[in-house]
């Protein structure tokens, strides 16, 4: 765990140095202003969408920028000659951006609604949603050469997880939306407005955690393939 902690601190420094914290500050202010101008009747629905978009879609694209910056600086390849294990590298990535997402979402929520009705399910939903999309995005980004290439590939890939959002907004009926990670995310994130029974919360958390494990395995395989390819080239 010591290696994970050291890698986590290094990731936080890397993100801060490259302006990710400043970017999140502007994102937070933008969403707070946007939600503040909405009528009270529509705030819960829009707040749920905004809060989902931060740990999922924003985190998904931010991790792409981080990985491509690290590839450009040779950090990925250096894993071959350092004591840092691939598992430690992935866990540090999986925890650093979710921490930033939770802080951002809490700032948005408390600025608009105060501390009223905050729940553990809400915080866990934010955390695991960010973990999933960070790892999934990492697995996509490691296979791309440029940021343009990442956006070209990642945007269609993200559309796979859109159906529960359409169901939530009453745009399209999706009976099995609970099987999607975003379906579980929405149910957990909207608990301040639609509380869940304890057993239902466990089910949704289990689905989201399961998807996060799959994303971890996908990211691990992707990075391992990248490193193995470099070894063969060398």
Low-confidence stretches: none
Q: How many domains would you count in the coordinates?
A: 1
Using the alpha-carbon principal axes, give the shape.
Answer: globular
Query: Hey, roughly how much beta strand do the residues contain?
Result: under 5%
- Beta strand count: 0
SSE class: mainly alpha
Largest sheet geometry: none
How much is the radius of gyration in Å? Answer: 18 Å
Q: Please, how many helices? A: 9
Helix content percent band? over 70%
Oligomeric grouping of the chains? single chain
Distance between the termini: 31 Å
* Mean pLDDT reading: 83
Order of helices and strands: HHHHHHHHH
Care to give the gist of this entry?
The chain has 234 residues and is mostly helical. The protein has one domain (2-233).
Give an overview in words.
- α3 packs across α8 (181-189) and α8 (181-189) packs across α9.
- It contains nine helices and no strands.
- The radius of gyration is 18 Å and the shape is globular.
- With 234 residues, it is mostly helical.
- The protein has helices spanning 2-17, 20-36, 43-72, 86-113, 120-141, 147-158, 163-168, 181-189, 198-233.
- The chain has one domain.
- Keywords: Membrane, Transmembrane, Transmembrane helix.
- InterPro entries: FLQE3_permease (IPR056926).
- It holds the Pfam family FLQE3_permease.
- The chain crosses the membrane at residues 21-39, 45-69, 90-112, 118-142, 149-166, 201-219.
In terms of topology, how is this protein built?
Layout: H1 2-17, H2 20-36, H3 43-72, H4 86-113, H5 120-141, H6 147-158, H7 163-168, H8 181-189, H9 198-233
Helix pairs in contact: 1-4, 2-3, 2-4, 3-4, 3-5, 3-6, 3-8, 4-5, 5-8, 5-9, 8-9
């Amino acid at each position: 765990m010591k290696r994970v902690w050291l890698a986590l601190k290094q990731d936080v420094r890397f993100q801060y140095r490259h302006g990710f914290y400043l970017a999140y500050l502007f994102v937070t202010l933008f969403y707070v202003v946007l939600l503040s101008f909405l009528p009270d009747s529509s705030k819960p629905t829009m707040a749920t969408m905004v809060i989902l978009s931060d740990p999922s879609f924003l985190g998904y694209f931010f991790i792409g920028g981080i990985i491509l910056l690290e590839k450009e600086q040779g950090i990925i390849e250096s894993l071959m000659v350092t004591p840092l294990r691939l598992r430690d590298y992935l866990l540090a990535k999986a925890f650093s951006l979710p921490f930033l997402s939770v802080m951002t979402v809490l700032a948005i929520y408390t600025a608009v609604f105060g501390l009223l009705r905050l729940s553990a399910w809400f915080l866990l939903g934010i955390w695991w949603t960010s973990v999933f999309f960070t790892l999934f995005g990492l697995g996509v980004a490691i296979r791309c050469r440029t940021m343009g290439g990442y956006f070209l590939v990642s945007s269609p890939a993200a559309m796979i997880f859109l159906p529960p959002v359409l169901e939530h907004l009453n745009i399209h009926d999706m009976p099995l939306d609970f099987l999607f990670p975003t379906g579980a995310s929405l149910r957990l994130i909207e608990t301040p407005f639609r509380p869940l029974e304890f057993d239902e919360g466990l089910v949704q958390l289990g689905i989201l955690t399961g998807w996060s494990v799959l994303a971890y395995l996908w990211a691990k395989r992707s990075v391992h393939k990248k490193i193995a390819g470099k070894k063969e080239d060398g």
